[in-house]
């Protein structure tokens, strides 16, 4: 692992207060993620995975402890700065794809660049490259409803990649897909990781976790294990 | 995100729901159209009045018959012609401020020239009439002294009558026309003074009396229907007016304490007062039209709030992908602005069409000025900003995490 971790969580806790009742979703979690890693965050539902992802993705701030992105404490950044960092440094992939239904694939893919101040012409060029990278260029002008689930998720991955983010955050990316399509999406992530892309994948599926080199397990908001295997399973290394 | 991108996103969103977008902006369309129409009609009416004021000429006093008592019964103003040519002479000779004065008798009749005829006002007067009104000839001459005293069979045409009776290339001067079977020679054609003023034919006063109105029972040989008089300078108007009043009281032997049998009026001043009234009414109507703009604004706010709610997930996605709060605010503000601007533009077009239709159908003069259009558009931009701000602000304050959870 390199000297300066890409992301570092130090004693992070997140407490929500609803109707006067405090609920701690994440409790005292610490770990680092280095450049080039592919990490599975596992745990049953309600274990705090999504809360953790929101904090890593700069959508939420810890109640206690600190999240550092490339050494900078994200709580000390302005809301606008965090938004800009989301556009440039974080690529989100959601379980339900979250494509804008009224925009076609290429417009959806180019969307983060709108918030990076990239010109329309360059947005189109880069969106095409990004679609090409996930094998979806032939569907560039299709609307989400005209695409299958797997195709929509590929478009969403192209969107997550377009700004060349430091990290891709995927929240149950195969959760809405059948097992075969899910396997294809996982293979895509694995291929991306081999090019050096850092990926954090949240899942409750142990089968997916086994395909990641490192697995962080959460239970009731607490980190219960953080294991790195020496090598990926041989079956994965021959894929693609 | 730039303003331009904001407008692009807004246009994209509004195009997806054209009927809703149109219905949303309808209030603005109606409001702006009414404002433009009211302005056009109001300033048209003012223009017409100004033209009338100009056509009367500067510093003109008009003397008309007043109330008459016959055996203790008060008759309607003007029911008896109380002014005479003698009054005109006396005013000219005895009041130094008066530069020119003329008495007139007027009626309407058919004027005929060869195959063409036209119904117009026949005004019997003297050359002084044209001096009082600063009315120049386009061609020909005024009446001669002999024609004025000897009931000469001559006529001076207003430009409308000349146009209606003569073909474009024809020179009316020297031509014979007929009015009530009397043949008259055209000796002059007047300059244009305004559509309402140019539809007239002038004959000498003596000609009018002898040849057209001689049989009318309420006319005595000397009387005129009204007198117009020109005062030398603006500052002398009030003085000249009271001098005329005392002169005529004396000449008409009006006993002290009894009402005058004539009225001295300053038509320009009266019309200016009328102009003020028109302005007040127009402003009132604009105020009423503004209410529909307000209603339009509220309807935009309503639809925008619904739209923000419907698109909560989109807002969450945009925030997650790097949209700043101000980007979201700008996006929705642009939508409201586009709705208002588009509505405003349609409203301006509708207002122009409507006022042109009114002008054609009711025969009113309307005038569309850039100021009214600018004002209406400024109003619609202001409406967009005011009523679009709250929904846009609301959208920008949504928590991205909560927004992403929304189905």
Task: Compose a concise summary of this entry.
The complex is a heterodimer of chains A (240) and B (407). With 240 residues, chain A is an alpha/beta fold.
Principal-axes geometry of chain A comes out as globular
Count of separate DSSP helical elements of chain B: 13
Measured as a percent range, the helix fraction of chain A is 25-40%
The biggest sheet of chain B amounts to: 6 strands, mixed, barrel
Structure description:
The complex is a heterodimer of chains A (about 240) and B (about 400). With about 240 residues, chain A is of the alpha/beta class. Chain A has a single domain, classed as 3-Layer(aba) Sandwich (Rossmann fold), CATH 3.40.50.300. Chain A has helices at about 50-55, 80-90, 105-115, 120-135, 150-160, 180-195, 205-210, 235-240; strands at about 5-20, 20-35, 40, 65-70, 70-75, 90-95, 165-170, 200-205, 215-220, 220-230. In chain A, the strands form two sheets. Chain A has a six-stranded mixed beta sheet, sandwiched between helices. In chain A, strands 2-1-4-5 form a four-stranded antiparallel beta sheet, covered by helices on one side. In chain A, a hairpin with a 2-residue loop joins strand 4 (about 65-70) and strand 5 (about 70-75). In chain A, helix 3 (about 105-115) runs parallel beside helix 5, helix 4 (about 120-135) packs across helix 5 and helix 5 runs parallel beside helix 6 (about 180-195). The longest helix of chain A is centred in the C-terminal third of the chain and has 16 residues, at about 180-195. Mean pLDDT of chain A is about 90; it is low at about 235-240. Helices cover about 55% and strands about 20% of the residues of chain B. With about 400 residues, chain B is of the alpha+beta class. Chain B has 13 helices and 14 strands. Chain B folds into two domains: about 5-50 and about 270-405, no CATH class; about 65-260, no CATH class. In chain B, strand 9 (about 175-180) and strand 10 (about 180-190) form a beta hairpin. In chain B, helix 2 (about 20-55) packs antiparallel against helix 9 (about 265-310) and helix 9 packs parallel to helix 12 (about 370-395). The longest helix of chain B is centred in the C-terminal third of the chain and has 44 residues, at about 265-310. In chain B, the strands form three sheets. Chain B has a six-stranded mixed barrel. Chain B has a two-stranded antiparallel ribbon with strand order 2-3. In chain B, about 40% of the residues are buried. At the A-B interface, helix 2 and helix 3 of A face helix 1, helix 10, helix 11 and helix 13 of B.
């Amino acid at each position: 692992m390199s000297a300066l971790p890409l992301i570092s969580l130090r004693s992070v806790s997140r407490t929500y207060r609803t109707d006067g009742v405090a609920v701690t979703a994440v409790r005292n979690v610490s770990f680092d993620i280095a450049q080039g890693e592919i990490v599975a965050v596992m745990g049953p539902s309600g274990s705090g995975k999504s809360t953790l992802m929101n904090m890593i993705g700069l959508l939420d701030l810890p109640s206690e402890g600190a999240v550092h992105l490339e050494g900078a404490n994200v709580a000390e950044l302005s809301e606008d700065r965090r938004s800009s960092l989301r556009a440039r440094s974080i690529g989100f992939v959601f379980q339900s794809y979250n494509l804008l239904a009224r925009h076609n694939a290429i417009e959806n893919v180019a969307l983060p660049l709108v918030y990076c101040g990239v010109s329309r012409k360059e947005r189109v060029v880069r969106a095409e490259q990004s679609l090409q990278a996930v094998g979806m260029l032939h569907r560039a002008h299709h609307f989400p409803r005209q695409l299958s689930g797997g195709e929509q998720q590929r478009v969403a991955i192209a969107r997550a990649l377009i700004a060349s983010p430091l990290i891709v955050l995927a929240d149950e990316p195969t959760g809405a897909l059948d097992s075969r399509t899910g396997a294809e999406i996982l293979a895509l992530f694995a291929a991306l990781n081999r090019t050096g892309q850092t990926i954090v994948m949240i899942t409750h599926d142990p089968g997916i976790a086994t395909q990641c080199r490192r697995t962080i397990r959460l239970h009731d908001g607490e980190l219960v294990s953080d294991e790195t295997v020496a090598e990926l399973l041989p079956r994965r290394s021959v894929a693609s | 995100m730039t303003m331009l991108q904001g407008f692009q996103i807004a246009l994209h969103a509004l195009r997806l729901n054209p009927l809703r977008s149109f219905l949303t902006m309808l209030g603005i369309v109606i409001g702006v159209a009414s404002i433009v129409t009211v302005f056009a009609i109001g300033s048209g009416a003012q223009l017409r009045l100004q033209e009338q004021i100009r056509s009367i000429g500067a510093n003109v006093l008009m003397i008309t018959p007043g109330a008459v008592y016959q055996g203790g019964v008060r008759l309607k103003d003007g029911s008896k012609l109380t002014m005479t040519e003698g009054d005109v002479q006396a005013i000219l000779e005895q009041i130094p401020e008066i530069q020119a004065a003329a008495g007139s008798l007027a009626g309407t009749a058919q004027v005929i020239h060869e195959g063409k005829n036209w119904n117009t006002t026949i005004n019997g007067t003297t050359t002084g009439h044209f001096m009082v009104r600063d009315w120049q000839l386009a061609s020909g001459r005024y009446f001669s002294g002999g024609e004025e005293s000897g009931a000469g069979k001559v006529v001076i045409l207003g430009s409308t009558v000349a146009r209606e009776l003569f073909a474009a290339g024809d020179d009316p001067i020297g031509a014979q026309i007929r009015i009530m079977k009397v043949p008259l020679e055209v000796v002059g054609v007047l300059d244009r003074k305004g559509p309402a003023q140019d539809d007239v034919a002038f004959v000498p006063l003596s000609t009018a009396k002898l040849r057209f109105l001689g049989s009318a029972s309420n006319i005595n040989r000397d009387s005129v229907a009204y007198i117009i008089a020109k005062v030398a300078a603006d500052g002398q108007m009030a003085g000249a007016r009271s001098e005329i009043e005392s002169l005529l009281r004396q000449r008409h032997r009006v006993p002290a304490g009894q009402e005058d049998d004539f009225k001295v009026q300053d038509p320009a001043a009266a019309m200016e007062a009328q102009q003020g009234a028109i302005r007040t009414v127009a402003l009132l109507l604009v105020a009423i039209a503004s209410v529909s703009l307000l209603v339009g604004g509220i309807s935009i706010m309503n639809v925008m709030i619904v739209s923000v709610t419907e698109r909560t997930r989109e807002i969450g996605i945009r925030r997650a992908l790097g949209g700043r709060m101000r980007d979201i605010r700008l996006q929705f503000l642009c939508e409201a602005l586009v709705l208002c601007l588009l509505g405003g533009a349609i409203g301006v077009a509708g207002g122009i069409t409507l006022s042109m239709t009114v002008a054609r159908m009711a025969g009113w003069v309307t005038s569309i000025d850039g100021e009214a259009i600018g004002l209406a558009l400024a109003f619609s931009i202001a409406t967009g900003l005011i009523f679009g701000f709250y929904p846009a602000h609301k959208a920008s304050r949504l928590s991205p995490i909560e927004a992403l959870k929304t189905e």
